[in-house]
Structures are given as structure tokens and as C-alpha cells.
Amino acid sequence: MSTFTPSFAIPPSSQPGVALVSISRLQSLCEAVAPRYAGQARFFPVREGYGAAVSVLQDYVDAGAVDVVLAAGSNGAYLRENLSVPVVMVKVNGFDVLSALTRATTRWPGASVGLVLHETISHELADLGPWLKVPLKQRAYRSVDEVRLAVQDLAAEGCKVVIGPGMACDLAQQAGLDSVFLYSLGAVEEAFERSVELARVSRQKESKRVRLNTIVAHLRDGVAAFDAAGQLEAVNPAMLDLLGLTRETDVAAQVTRAVGPWLRDTLEHDAAVEERIEQIGGRALIVNCLPIVEQGTRSGAVVTVQDALVAQRIDRSLRTSQRPKQLVARHQLDDLIGASAALERVRRLARAGAAHDATVLLSGESGTGKELVAQGIHNASRRRGNPFVAFNCAALPEGLIESELFGHEEGAFTGARRGGKPGLFEIAHTGTIFLDEIGEMPAALQSRLLRVLQEREVMKLGSGRATPIDVRVIAATHRDLHVLVEQGAFRADLYFRLNLLQIALPPLRERREDLPQLARHLLGRSAFQYGLSDWSEAASERILTFMAPLFERYAWPGNVRELDNLLTRAAIYPGYAGESAGEPSIDRQALFPEFGRMRQATEDSGSIAVHQPAGSRIVRDTTPPSPRPTREDALRALAQAGGNRAAASRALGIGRTTFWRLMQNDGPQ
């Protein structure tokens, strides 16, 4: 087996590599044993020793060819101190020594024998000298020079035979002495076994390390691993870039210094650092430092660093791509059907409000389209495409409202979801939250809502840490919040916080000119929704003619919602909604009781004419008109309605505008 030096690139191999370092006689034993392991490892013989051997071996190591070095004596000890790969020593045991002594005494009976051992002499063997009847002298060595001195001393003391490593045998022969090589074939075979196995394990570990480093090097997040003593083991380029460090100087010292505070907390106190925001080099970073635990023992720590801006972009992307369909605003402001001045005013105010992030308060009776306007404002704003979350404050008990709006941590209360739950404010982050029926919110939660609006952060139930949010708030109510504030049922500070941009939605009875256009739109939608395949323009006009009296005189307490329901009913039961139906009027009145309510309201208000369904005659009422209500009547009705102006105006049989005028005057109207 010839000497090989890596003067050219070594072809890669999946087999582990073992370097065989033997200066003299150990070489022949290695050459005899190596072929037995040819299928398990590649072997690279090195004839140099000490410093020269280190230079050659380092080339092998850098080339990734050698995983383990096999050597003996002081040469092996030197290599172990100066190489980064494991060094397996050929060990001499008692049987090797006795075998060498037997060979020496057999071949040279009665000759004085000198024994040269690495590092220390054998006191047990010295005690056995008299029993063996062999004049034996021992010397220990740790370097080449000490080997030379040991042989000289033994020769001076009259030793004729020297037992020792190859160099000692060579020096003995040069001094005219006989010699016996100390290392046995069995000792070399044992060293080969250990070297091949260790090389195999080292190659596997190195392969995993290289693979892991390759993966980590491609991460955008910074990663640095430390051992239990706080020494840097691995760091990826992203970590250096995020920390603003250079690659020219001592990287380990720079990284350790930069992450030192978090690393000490983890290594000394087992305190994990999680999602800590730090300002480093003018950049906001998210820092994590976690202990590495292997087989129940802490063996180090890993530090990860992430650019906060990147995390925000990822968060926005996830929120957008994974947003449920119910969090999408479907309506635009153009979906408001009608050309009345009242509705045009709503559109104008809504568009102006959409251009800013100010809180909007929508007021109006039930069914006037407050959520449609809220969705339109969201879709006309810069937040379009981000979440639109709607919540009815009157739909749940107080305890559930708090959990829904603000979220909760795991175990915050009995029945809390495992792993916790984000609140609607968090879900609406970067978008809009629509709080319908805000006037019904329990008093205990009004203060929490006020804090969210002021601080722009929410705290989950059971959590001690607030989460910043970026949310536009649109609230809606059918109640008079100002009256509720006067009655102590609504917080004044919350009212003024909400009442920044106010938009009042008119009821249908105050924009009757929009009814025909709106009705045509709703009829077409109902025909499509309920699969009315035989629907025609003539059918639509027949229903509109049938509904004309209601358009003119009915109060529409349910507003657009009630109109939609009535039109859908007329479209599904077309035989009852027209002059050609031929059905008894009692059936028609049962299906469309709105006509009866219209007639009764008209009679109660003292009107002289009442509209009847199409095809019936007009009945004139000669009953004297009832006196107009006074301000005292309005106040009494408002008290009975619990401050609800819409209900009070309906109870008096007058419109909200008339009711408002009554409240502004002291005399009768």
C-alpha cells in the first residue's frame, strides 16, 4: 500500500475515510489489516509524523475525505491535540507486553531487556520482574526526543534488547541493540474496528450537519446554535445580515456578543425568550431563544431572529389568503338603490367617510340598510380586500360577547377552547369591524370597548399581554344613543368616541320616490334567488301596480327588509297579487295584511281616504280628524318607548321628522 498525498481533488464517496498514520514498523501491520475492511471504509496512509502529518491530514479533512485518524504513541497524542477529527490510538495491553517479553527472552535468553512505553511505565510489570526472572528496565516517553533519550539510557545501563514502538526499535538497532516491536496484530485489528465504526458514525453526523447547515443557510430567518458552555456551533448568513455583522472579523465573538443577553437568560436560568421585539441597528427584530434538550439534559440553545417587517407581510398575506368567506364585504355603495335626495346624502357622506379611517356611527331604523352601507364604506376605503367582520352586540349574552370580541386564552374559563381563540378584533386586523346594535351592548363591556378604541390594542380573557390591532370601527344603532346617555344606559365617553362621523339612514317612508326603482331591483333578485323561471316584465309590473297603494301610504316599519319580504311573497304567490287573480278578497287580505295595517293607520290618523288593493273601490271616511299630537304627547310616547324615537313616532302615527319637530317646539303642532 503506497503513500497517498492529496495533491488533487479527492472524488466524493459515501464511505467513511480513515487515515493510517505510521512512521515505521506499524505500517506493515496496518497494510496487513486494511484489506479486511476495504468494503467498509477508504484508507489513506500517511508516513509523516507530528507537524508534517498535521499538514497532510488537514488537507484530507478539508477535502471531506477523512473522518477518523488511526495512530499510535506520542505521534497519536500530538495529532489528537492538533486535529479537529477524532484520533484512535493503537492501545498496548498487558498481553502485548508479555508476548513481547516472551519473544525477547526466547530469542535472547538471559539478556537484559529494556521496555519503552508511552507516557508511563508499568508498575505491575516491575513487581512481576523477580517472578519472571527477567532483568527488566522501563522508560516512558512523550515525544520523539524522549524516545531517543530512553534508548540511550537503556543501552548505557547494559540492556541488550529493547522492546518498544517502531521508532524505539529503529534507534536500538542503530545503537547495535536487538529489538522487539511492541504492537501486536491483535492491537491493530482492535484499533481498526474502533476507527471504522467511529468513522461511520462521524460520517453520518457530518452528513446530517452539512444537510442541516445547507437548509439553515437558505432560511430568511437568522439562526445561531450554541453549546452548553455558550460557544457558537453554527450560524447562518441571514443571522449576520439581520444583526448587521461583518464576515471579515471574528464571527463567533460578534454573534455571541449580539445575542448575549438572551443567551444568558436561557443557559443560566432555563428561561426561554419567545417573540421578544428588539431594536437592533435601527431595525425591529423578533427574537426567540430556546434551550436545546437532548435525552432530558440541556445541551445548548438556539437563537432565531426574524425581521418584524417580514413577519407583518406574512401575517397580512395569511390573513388575506385564509380569510373565511363570511369575512368578506360583498356590497358597494352603488348597491344603494334610489335617487332621492335623502339617499344621495347618505352616499355622499359614506364616500367622504370611506376616505379616512375615522370611526363611523350609522343610525337608522331596522331594515334601512346599515350593514350594506358599512360594507360599502369598507369597500370604498383603503382597507378593501382586508377582513370585514360583522358582529351583532344584541345577539349573545354578556359573557359570550366578551369572549367573541376580545378572544380568550386556553383555560380562561370553563369550556374555553383548547389552545385559546382570537377575538373578532384580532381577526379584523388591518380591516374593518362592524358593531351592529351598539346601543344594546351591556354596560360592563362598554368600558372595555372604549379602551380598545382609545389604545388600539386588545387583551384576551386570561391573558396578561395586550395585542396591538389596526382596525377601523363602524358602529350602528336603531336607538337614540344621546337619549341613552342621558338615561345613564350608555357611557357618554364611548358615545362621543363613536359619534365621530355620523350618517343617518332615512326610512322608506321618507324616500317614497325610491320605492318603484327599489322594488323592481328586489323583484328581480327574488325571481333569481327562488328560481322563478317563468318570470316576466309583465309579472313584475302587475305586482308593482298591486303594491302602488302601499308605496304611497304605508309606513314601512320594517323598511327595506319588510319591502323585500312582501315583494318575494307577491312573486311566489302571483295569483293573489293582481286584478286577474279571481281569488276571494279575504284570502288576499290574509296573505297581504299590510293593506289592512295601512288602512287602520290611515283611519287612526284622521285621513279622509283609504287605499284599497287594486280592483277595490276607494272608501271615504267622514270621521272628524283626530287632534294633532302635542309635545307632551311626544314626551309621553318617548318615555313609554324607552327612549326609542322610532317606536314613539310609530305609536303617535307620525313620521320621525314630525316627531323631531314636536320635540323642538313648546307649543302644539
Short structural description:
With 669 residues, this protein is an alpha/beta fold. It is built from 26 helices and 24 strands.
Using the CA coordinates, give the radius of gyration.
Answer: 47 Å
Percent strand: 15-25%
* Mean of pLDDT: 82
- Work out the oligomeric state of the chains in this entry: single chain
Give me the number of helical elements: 26
What is the CATH C level class of the largest domain, in words?
Answer: Alpha Beta
Residue runs with pLDDT of under 50 for 5 or more positions? 1-5, 579-583, 606-626
Termini separation comes to 122 Å
User: Biggest β-sheet: count, sense, barrel?
Assistant: 5 strands, antiparallel
- For the secondary structure, the number of strands is 24
CATH homologous superfamily of the largest domain, by name? P-loop containing nucleotide triphosphate hydrolases
Question: Under CATH, the topology of the largest domain is which?
Answer: Rossmann fold
Question: By helix and strand content, what is the structural category?
Answer: alpha/beta
Helix % is: 40-55%
* Backbone shape: rod-shaped
Spatial order of the strands forming the largest sheet: 10-9-13-12-11
- Please indicate the count of domains: 5
CATH architecture of the largest domain: 3-Layer(aba) Sandwich
Task: Give structural attributes.
rod-shaped, five-stranded parallel sheet, 669 residues, five-stranded antiparallel sheet, disordered N terminus, Beta-Lactamase, Rossmann fold, 5 domains, alpha/beta
